[in-house]
Specification:
Blueprint: H1 17-22, H2 24-31, H3 35-42, H4 49-58, H5 61-74, H6 85-97, H7 103-116, H8 122-128, H9 134-147, H10 153-161, H11 167-179, H12 186-189, H13 198-210, H14 217-223, H15 237-251, H16 257-269, H17 273-287
Length: 291
């Protein structure tokens, strides 16, 4: 059965597309009703990464996860050196101890390690793949993808084939593998283009394209077509716009007549001006097309 022959309109099987691409459920579920607390916390005087890590270790319950959240943001900065072995080892110790803490602490510490891009944290994050709690497992999967930690590829491959794992775990693994440069995983991803879950088909196509494989081109072309989303009532306009932007970006890896045709339509008549502009720029950069 081909990916395109599977019934596309199955609302009970469709996650919200924006969540699929960016694993937002991980963040939304954690932040949720705590938004006001976070806003209040973020208005305080900024602290260093070491200060925040210390708060994670000795702070109150709320302060620990709030500090872990802020730490996960700070570690995206390249203006501070986070390769100090003392800091690295303290972060790992905090993560290991968080297995008995509020899951939000462990989630944000995993994401913090992923944000560093430092392979030093890879083996620690691999342990998190087998946590009892789903959300902390998802955080470990995402963080390993952020690190592009090749030594975890076999672990992630095992998750894909484990029928006892949650569908969202399979989806998260597909996204993380697409962020790596390990092309040996391509044969394992291609069968997922026929997966019963439409989100897995979508993200598999995107991940394969990132790895230089053309097997999911038809799906990517569908994602560049606004009319395609009418089959998925759960996907609102902004989510469709975001999905289309991602598909356009991924399509730019290849020169393809099917992609070019979709881009021309978007450039000339799409209802969203940002989508039009993105399509115009892609046509010019990839195809030398002049508007």
């Amino acid at each position: 059965m081909s990916a395109t022959s599977i019934k596309e309109s199955n609302p009970s099987k469709v996650y919200v597309l924006f969540y699929s691409f960016f694993l937002i459920p991980l963040v939304i579920a954690v932040i949720g009703t705590s938004f006001i607390i976070i806003v209040k916390f973020l208005t305080l005087e900024p602290k260093s990464a070491s200060d925040l890590l210390n708060d994670v270790k000795i702070g109150s319950a709320n302060k620990r996860w709030q500090s872990a959240f802020e730490l996960s943001k700070i570690l995206t900065s390249k203006t501070e050196n986070f390769e100090d072995n003392l800091f690295r080892n303290q972060l790992i110790t905090a993560y290991n101890r968080s297995i008995h803490d509020d899951e939000k602490v462990r989630i944000y510490l995993a994401l913090a390690m992923g944000q560093t891009g430092d392979q030093f944290y890879g083996e620690t994050l691999r342990i998190g793949l087998n946590d009892d709690k789903l959300m902390t497992r998802l955080a470990a999967i995402k963080a390993l993808g952020m690190l592009q930690y090749d030594s975890s590829v076999e672990d992630l491959r095992d998750i894909i084939t484990d029928k006892n794992r949650e569908v969202i775990e399979h989806l998260s693994v597909v996204v993380s593998l697409g962020n790596m440069e390990e092309k040996s995983i391509i044969p394992d991803l291609i069968p997922l283009l026929d997966h019963e879950e439409v989100n897995i088909r979508w993200d598999t196509a995107l991940s394969l394209a990132k790895l230089g494989d053309k097997s999911g081109h038809k799906i990517i072309a569908d994602l560049m077509d606004r009319s395609y989303y009418s089959s998925f009532p759960e996907v609102d306009t902004e989510e469709a716009n975001q999905a289309m932007r991602v598909a356009i970006k991924v399509s730019s890896v290849f020169k393809n007549d099917m992609f070019k045709e979709k881009l021309v339509i978007l450039a000339e008549s799409d209802e969203n001006m940002q989508i039009r502009d993105t399509a115009i720029k892609t046509l010019k950069q990839i195809y030398g097309h002049q508007s």
